[in-house]
Amino acid sequence: MVVTADPPSGPPPAPSPSAPFIVTAELPEDVFSWSNGLRSTHFPPERNWLKAHVTLFHSFAPSLRDELPRFLARIAAEFAAPPARIDGLMDLGQGTALEVRSPGMLAIREVIADHFWQMLTRQDQGGKKLHITIQNKVARDQALALQGELAPRLKPREFAFTGLGLHLYRNPHWDAVGTWKFRGKEHA
Question: The domain at 21-181 falls in which architecture?
C-alpha cells in the first residue's frame, strides 16, 4: 500500500513514552487563514502556541506510531472531502469557538473511533462537537464580550475539509507528523 502523506522532511518525530498523538480534520486554506486570524487576534498571546485547527481525537497512545498513519492514509483514500459549515459561535465558558457542523466528518471520525475503540481515552470516546477555538482561558466577561461582538457579524460559511492530520503533542506545542488529503469517492 502506498501512503500518500505529505509529511515534514525527515522521519516522524519519535514519541516519548508519554507523548500522545492528536488527529485533526484539516481546513481549506481560506477557512484556515480566516479562523487563524481570529485566533491570533483574540487568543491570549502568552498561550497561543497553536494555529487554528479542528481536533478529532486528543490522545492516541505512542504505541500506535506505525498503525495510526497507515490507517489515516487508508481512510483519506477511501472517503471524499466531507462538506462542512461554520454555523455560528460556541460558548466555551472561558472562551469562544467557531461551531462547525459536518455530519460527514463526524461519520469519518466514527470509523476511526470504531477501529481504535479499545485505545481511546475517555475524552475521545464521547460524542464530539466540531469547533475551531479562537479564544480560551479568559475571564467569563471577556468571552461574553467577544461573542457579543462577533455574533452579529458572523455569516454561515460553507467549505469542505481537505484531509486528516496527525500531530505529536510536545506540551504545549504540536509536531506535525503527516497530512493525508481526502481523495476517495465514498461520502460518509
Answer: Alpha-Beta Complex (3.90)
